[in-house]
Specification:
This protein is α/β, with parallel strands linked by helices. It is 38% helix and 26% strand. The protein is built from ten helices and ten strands. The chain has helices at residues 48-56, 78-83, 101-108, 115-128, 130-134, 145-157, 175-190, 202-208, 226-231, 233-239; strands spanning 8-19, 22-33, 37-41, 63-68, 71-72, 86-89, 163-167, 195-198, 211-216, 219-225. The strands form two sheets. The chain has a six-stranded mixed β-sheet, with helices on both faces. The protein has a four-stranded antiparallel β-sheet with strand order 2-1-4-5, covered by helices on one side. β4 (63-68) and β5 form a beta hairpin. The longest helix has 16 residues, at 175-190. The protein starts with 7 loop residues before the first strand and ends with a helix.
C-alpha cells in the first residue's frame, strides 16, 4: 500500500485559531496519511507552530475541526491527545537537564503501565539513536544541542505513537547535527513512523517529505508533493532563496 492510498490519519480542516482575540490561523487545512512524512514550511510568523499547538490541544480552535484516527480531537487537552497516539516534540530541545538520558526517556513513557512495552520502546529508541544507549547515565543538561534533540525525539517515541509532530527539529543546531537529524527523520520514516514536521530549513524539509504545505500569514499558500514544491519556480523564488 503506497502512502497515496493509505488512510488519512490526521485531518485538520479549516482551522482558525490564535491567542486571545488575535487570530493567527485563518481557515488552514492540513492532512497526513499513515506512513507519510509531511513537511510544513513558510516564513516566520506564518502560523506553522500555531497549527501544531492547535492540533495537539495547547490552543482551542475558534473554527474548524481536527480529526485524528477517526475521532474529533479539537478541544481535547494535550494529555488526552497523547493517550490517543499523537506525540509532539516542541521546538527548543526541551529536556529535563538534571535527569539522565534514561530518566528523560522513561518520562516519555509515563502513560505506559506495561513494563515490557516500556523496555521494547526503549530498545527501539536505542536502535534509532545508539548514542543515547551509550550515554544513558549522562545528565541530559550536559549534552550538546544535537544530542539533546535526539533525547527529545526519543522521549516522544516512548509511547509508540501513531503520529509524531516535530516543531523545528533542526532549529539552532550545528550543521553536522542538522544533517544528522534529517538522516534520522528519514530512518524513522523507513521504520514505519508517520510524521509531520514544521521546519525553517525549507529545502531540506521538502527533500525528505512525501508531501508539503506552505503557509503564509496564517493561510494555505501552496501544497503538493515534496518534489513538486521543490521544483515549483514560485516556491523557489519566495521560500527557497532561488
Amino acid at each position: 500500500m503506497t502512502t497515496e492510498t493509505s488512510p488519512v490519519l490526521l485531518r485538520a480542516e479549516s482551522i482558525t485559531a490564535g491567542y486571545g482575540k488575535m487570530a493567527i490561523l485563518h481557515d488552514v487545512t492540513v492532512e497526513v496519511r499513515a506512513g507519510e512524512m509531511v513537511s510544513v514550511i513558510g516564513p516566520n510568523g506564518a502560523g506553522k507552530s500555531t497549527a501544531f499547538k492547535t492540533i495537539v490541544g495547547f490552543l482551542r480552535p475558534s473554527g474548524g475541526r481536527v480529526h485524528f484516527d477517526g475521532q474529533d480531537i479539537a478541544g481535547l487537552r494535550p494529555d488526552q491527545v497523547l493517550h490517543r497516539g499523537l506525540a509532539y516534540v516542541p521546538q527548543g530541545r526541551i529536556v529535563f537537564p538534571q535527569m539522565t538520558v534514561l530518566e528523560n526517556l522513561e518520562m516519555g513513557a509515563y502513560i505506559e503501565r506495561d513494563g515490557r512495552r516500556v523496555r521494547e520502546a526503549l530498545e527501539r529508541v536505542y536502535g534509532l539513536f545508539p548514542i543515547l544507549a551509550e550515554r544513558r547515565s549522562q545528565k541530559a543538561g550536559t549534552m550538546s544541542g544535537g544530542e539533546q534533540q535526539m533525547v527529545a525525539i526519543g522521549r516522544a517515541l516512548m509511547t509508540t505513537p501513531k503520529l509524531i509532530l516535530l516543531d523545528e527539529p533542526s532549529l539552532g543546531l550545528a550543521p553536522k547535527f542538522v544533517s544528522l537529524i534529517f538522516d534520522k527523520l528519514v530512518e524513522m520514516k523507513r521504520a514505519g513512523y508517520t510524521m509531520m514536521v514544521v521546519e525553517q530549513n525549507a529545502a531540506k524539509a521538502l527533500a525528505v517529505a512525501d508531501r508539503g504545505y506552505v503557509l503564509e500569514l496564517g493561510r494555505n499558500r501552496f501544497e503538493g508533493t515534496g518534489r513538486a514544491l521543490l521544483e515549483d519556480p514560485e516556491v523557489k523564488r519566495l521560500y527557497l532563496g532561488g
